[in-house]
Amino acid sequence: MSSTLGTLYRVTTFGESHCKGVGAIVDGCPPGLELTEADIQPQLSRRRPGQSDLSTPRQEADQVIIYSGTEFGRTLGTPIMLLVNNKDQRPQDYGEMSRIPRPSHADFTYQMKYGTRASSGGGRSSARETIGRVAAGAIAEKWLRETYGTEIVAWVSAVGDIDAPEMDIERLDRTEVDRRLVRCPDDPTADRMEELIKEVLAAKDSVGGVLTCVCRRVPVGLGEPVFDKLEARLAQAMLSLPATKGFDIGSGFAGTRMRGSLHNDPFVRKGQGLGTRTNRSGGVQGGISNGEPIVFRVAFKPVATIGLAQETADFDGEPVTLTAKGRHDPCVVPRAVPIVEAMAALVLIDLALQQRGRQLVSPL
């Protein structure tokens, strides 16, 4: 099983949904970065369960502990171990699922691949695994912010068939995003989204959605063609998240309906350098960042585990009616906002460190 992401900034996550704890090992963080738990906790608190009546009622504080890799509040350049203890575990809620694979969940595929699985809450396929990603991403984000001034902001741009209008990506910040429980910064749209999620929850069902993310002040030159292009690395990172079903960047699929004369981004002078008049490329050209805001979207399916009775089959192929227990989000996208931000930071820091290494040996 591959649980490691990155080349120079390497993150290995560990833990299952209902084990004693989850977390990550970060290897390759530059030394000298001021770092304490207080730098990491805000993003974990945005991700944690039990935030509102729109999310799972599982109660976890998700308090992170830095076990290694720092001294006197600064990174040493050695591996950083991050641990979050699980408190509100209820493996007994999943007894029936030891013999019945949940529809559209990973129960069947994990069992077939490994011959065994953690049936409590999905084990490694649970979104609880993303705690380690968020913690490691918070460190990456701080380094990017202090080194380049990079800002990463994600928000909910769709729930079900409700779409938010376009946002001002140059000014939108997390404070504005977090004003609403659903993390959509447009109030009329947020009202409709929250009402839909409550309706779905009452029906013991689930609904999907879309997150949009912008990365501002990313330096020019990040991305390693041809197989590690920036958008390819972002796509791989985002599609490795639980429940993701789609990724597009810049104009995305909508751009296929345009002619090249309208789709192209003409260059203009911006300050002391070049920029683009439009940004249909989404901040990436030829797999390399061009200095414009990186804008992409991630699609999340409806959560697979629902309380509504479903006709399915057990592992022996016998017809059964499954009414899933456990505590699950009716819509995952509000809590996925910091997870998407973390994955963007992990990709950007890894590619930034590679580019800095190249610049050290370049004759130019």
Protein described:
The structure is a single chain. The protein has 364 residues and is of the alpha+beta class. The chain has a single domain, classed as Chorismate synthase, AroC fold, CATH 3.60.150. The chain has eight helices and 18 strands. The two termini are 41 Å apart. Helix content is 28%, strand content 22%. Helix 1 crosses helix 8 and helix 3 packs across helix 8. The protein has a five-stranded antiparallel sheet with strand order 1-2-3-7-4, with helices on one face. The protein has a five-stranded antiparallel sheet with strand order 9-8-10-16-11. Strands 5-6 form a two-stranded antiparallel sheet. The radius of gyration is 21 Å and the shape is globular.
Return the CATH class. Answer: Alpha Beta
Biggest sheet strand line-up: 1-2-3-7-4
Query: Strand-residue fraction?
Result: 15-25%
**C-alpha geometry:** globular
CATH architecture: 4-Layer Sandwich
Under CATH, the homologous superfamily reads Chorismate synthase AroC
| Main sheet specs | 5 strands, antiparallel
Tell me the radius of gyration. 21 Å
Helix/strand-derived class?
alpha+beta
Q: Uncertain spans, ≥5 residues at pLDDT below 50?
A: none
Helix % is 25-40%
Quaternary organization: single chain
- The number of distinct helices, counting runs of at least 4 residues, comes to 8
Mean pLDDT: 92
Work out the count of structural domains.
Answer: 1
* Cα separation of the termini: 41 Å
Task: Say what the CATH topology is.
Answer: Chorismate synthase, AroC fold
